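Hi Y.,

Following your request, here is the sequence exactly as I used it, all 225 residues.
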Amino acid sequence: MFKQLLKLLSKGDLISQAFDDTQSMMNKSYKLFQESVDSLKNNKKAGFDIYELDREINSYEKKIRRKILEHLSLNPEQDLIASLVLTSIVISIERIGDYSKNIYEVVDMYKNGESVNISEKLSSTEPVITKSFCDVAEAFKNGDEQTATKIIHTLDPLRKTFDSYIYKDVLTEKDKDTRTIITNVLYSRYLKRVAAHLENIATSIVNPFDKIGFYKSGNVETEAD
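Below is the corresponding structure, written out as C-alpha cells. Let me know if you'd prefer a different format.
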C-alpha cells in the first residue's frame, strides 16, 4: 500500500506536497527528540525554543491533513487508502514530538547545576532510537520495506528493556533517591512511546493499512506498543 502512495507522488499534486511536508515534520520531530534527550542528561536549557518547535510540528500536522482532505475531494477513491496511510504516519510523528517534549519537561524537577542520574540501561537505548529515527526517515522517503522491517526488529526488543527497568530494576535500586527513580521511570516510559511510534511508522511502510501498528514475531502477531 505504501508503494501506491509513492506512485501518487509522480502526479506532483497536493499529496506530493503533503509527502514533502511529512518529511520536514519528521526532521523537526527528530531535532526535538535529540535536543530534549541532551537537555535532560546534562540538565540544561535547550538551544532553541522547544515549545515553538512543537507548535511547528503540530502546525505541519494540520497543514498535511488539509492537503490530504483536499486531495481526496478532487481525486478518485483509489487514492483513499494511500492517503489514510500518510495520515497514520503523520499522527505518529506528532506523538513523537509530544513525548520528546515530555522528556524535556522532566528537567524542571532539577535546579541549575544539579546532576541528573540516568540509568545506564536506559542510556544504552538512546543511540538505537536515534539511529532508528534516521533509518525510518530514509525508509519513508524511498518506500524501503527491507529497512523498515529491520527497524521493527531492532526496536521491538527495547520494550523488554523499558519494562524490565520499570517493573524489576526500580524495585532493587534502594540506593537511589525518589526523584532519580521518578526521573528514570518517566524517561523509560517516554522513550518506550517514542520507539513504539517509530515502529508504527515502519509498519506503515511494510504492512497493508489494516495491519499498521502490528508486526509478526514468529507466528504471533504483536502490537507495536
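The CA atoms of residues 39 and 46 lie 6 Å apart.

Thanks again,
Q.
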